[in-house]
């Protein structure tokens, strides 16, 4: 994957290179988490770095996608409180962008309600 991205990034603008780096971090984080099938330091670090980098771009669709992916990674391994800020950021941005502009629109939107329903049900159960 790295060699493919390197050849693409040689032709890309500085902004595109930054966005490619963000994508690479998310895809590598996903790959590591699937190989290990558990929360792990390397994936967490890559997702969090991608989220920080995405925040510094003007690409709102990329930010939404990265925050959703990062939140869903933490959600998948029962780290609900860590996941929540990423889903909140994503939700706030979604309110200000047309659905047609979203990256992986259906997958991004599917992850949001799944998290919200599960998180609030867990919170209700712990308060009783």
Structural overview:
The protein is mostly helical and 128 residues long. The protein has one domain (2-127): Serine Threonine Protein Phosphatase 5, Tetratricopeptide repeat, CATH 1.25.40. Helix content is 79%, strand content 0%. The chain is built from six helices and no strands. The model has no long low-confidence stretch (mean pLDDT 82).
Shape by Cα distribution: globular
In the CATH scheme, the class would be: Mainly Alpha
Order of helices and strands: HHHHHH
Which structural class best describes the helix and strand composition? mainly alpha
The total domain count is: 1
The third-level CATH topology is Serine Threonine Protein Phosphatase 5, Tetratricopeptide repeat
What can be said about this structure in brief?
The chain is mainly alpha-helical. It has helices at residues 2-9, 14-36, 41-55, 60-76, 80-94, 105-127.
């Amino acid at each position: 994957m790295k060699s493919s991205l390197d050849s693409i990034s040689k032709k890309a603008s500085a902004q595109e290179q930054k966005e490619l780096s963000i994508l690479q971090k998310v895809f590598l984080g996903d790959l590591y988490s699937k190989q290990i099938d558990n929360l792990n330091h390397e994936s967490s670090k890559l997702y969090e770095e991608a989220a920080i980098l995405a925040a510094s771009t003007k690409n709102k669709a990329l930010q939404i996608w990265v925050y959703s992916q990062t939140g869903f990674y933490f959600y998948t391994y029962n780290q609900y409180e860590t996941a929540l800020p990423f889903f909140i950021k994503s939700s706030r941005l979604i309110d200000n962008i047309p659905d047609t502009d979203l990256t992986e629109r259906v997958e991004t939107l599917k992850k949001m309600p799944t998290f919200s329903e599960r998180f609030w049900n867990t919170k209700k159960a712990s308060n009783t």
